[in-house]
## 1
Amino acid sequence: MINTQRFVCNMLEENTYVVSDETREAVIIDCGAFYEEERLAIVNYIKDKKLNLVALINTHAHIDHCYGNDTIFKAFGIRPVVHREDQVLYNMLRQQANDFCGIVYTNDIPAVDKYIGDNEILKFGNHQLTSIHTPGHTPGSILLYCESEHLCFSGDTLFRFSIGRTDFPGGSFEDMTKSLQIIAELPENTVVLPGHGEQTTIREELEMNPYLR
């Protein structure tokens, strides 16, 4: 059984997820921890629960989802996994911090551990996550789908009754429309944990989200 702990982080209220199972192996999805108390809370949670962290996965390479990558690297020696189509964005994280948040970001930015593609399997403990390429918000946006638990981490592609913006550099509404068609084909009982805001289900989104009707 999967356990998911959410941490709401940084000035943009991004959702960071620490996901573990009965083996105590764990992954972090989108570590956006910016403030020191956020960074400490995540590190202490992992240590207090005696979790063995095996991966840090970025659903896309926007700065608000990557602020805490340096903390995870320093504390656990884990570098991020990113879709290969977001390589350019990842290399622009400092510029993004200035452009999006108006700050000079001086923290270290760990190199990417590996770039992944569509339909790749990321294993931890007795579970696995499948990366599904869902461009639109960024060229390399992915969602992470755990079929056995009917669980989907949607990044900034799908929100509760809404979708991610497509007007940032690299965004595409046409690509987003195609990605939403892929998401709409997931089982209706799938729980969706987005990059911002509260969780939802595919059934609720098919009924209430104007972009999926």
## 2
Amino acid sequence: MGPSVLEVHRGTGTDAPADVLRAPRLAWRTVGPAGRIAVVGAVMACVLAVGWWLPSTALVLGTGGALVVLVAAALVDAVEHRLPNALVALAALPAVAAMAVGWEPSVARSVGTGALLMAVPLLVTHLAAPAGMGFGDVKAGVVLGGALGLVDGQLALFALVLGLAAGALWGLTRRARSIPLGPALVLGAVAALVVGRLLGVEAR
């Protein structure tokens, strides 16, 4: 999405470790009742999607942990138009832990594939139009894609397409040139888990 259609503005993402708690609390107070319901609904959707995959692979618990943390990051993004580095880094920990516990070459390949499938298009967009795509989205894409790769790397491509479509629809509906992409990417990741299950995608 180039700046001529929709811009995804945010700061550099530079923040202190204290942002892990402070920024989500401030955003929670800012969004109001409707926003809080949306956040709770997003967390519940993550839990349900993970639970649906659990019979196939326990590694999806790492995916779920990453998604829940990124819901908090997306909440901050919705309010401040930035994805805090501290939260994005924290979201990577459950995925890394799951990969370490279930270490196999196939797991590592799937995680790497997922990270690349989701992050590379975002990186190319960022390099082509840095004012329209923040680098925070690229970093979040690495974490999201890798987390989905714990289940199956191809889910990351579903997530990217669905997330960008959701973001574009949201921006067009609100006639906004600037949107926070973090919430759309998280929504796309949860939707990809659901779509993948419906399509019968098997855990790697």
## 3
Amino acid sequence: MKKIFVAVLGIWMLLSTIAVALVGLNNSVHRATIIMALGLIIFWNILGGSIMYHFRNKIRYFVQKINIKWQVKFVLFATFLFLIEEAITTAMTNLAPAFGVKLGEAYITASANYFDVIFFHSVIVIAPMFIGWAIILSYFDFKPFTVFLLFGITGTLAEWSFSGLSSLGAFAIWIFVYGLMVYLPAYCCVPQTRVVHKARWWLYPLAVFFPALFIPLTGWIPSLFDANHPKIDF
């Protein structure tokens, strides 16, 4: 059932992307943006996701040898994967001239500067959510696939708050983008022998929103260094 769900999600991701691409195919900026999104889908969602799934047991063997608390490993591992994902999106943004437009005319990140992206726009805000999931997994038995799906929903809602209702149609893309940040850490870092409670039905919607409570831990840092930093640098 999990494989069928992922396959259906993948089909919707590709079909919705093709549909959006066809709407503005003659617009160079729209076309460049879609190509950037396709780059993210190919290199992170498809290739990255396939690598994570295929090598998950070998990676878990290595990760479990690291002698620190599993909650710390989980947060650091998820943040590391987030940094990789943002490297891909920033690279796509910087390839704008190769896609037929000027840098800044089309983009999928708030800046063309990788460090600006992670320290002022994305990782600095989202990474604390991984602490929320580490706490959840310390007390309740959520399986890695469930963590993937629930954080994917969290990410979809986050994109909705940034980009509006149009992002909801691309929910499949965002579930993969955000879900893959936590799937492998949940699979590799969380001890299977830990003593936890069974996750009841009402915990599932709660787990979608609970991680957002931790955003204030670091969300204030960008304003400390630059209170007037723009939401979009272009």
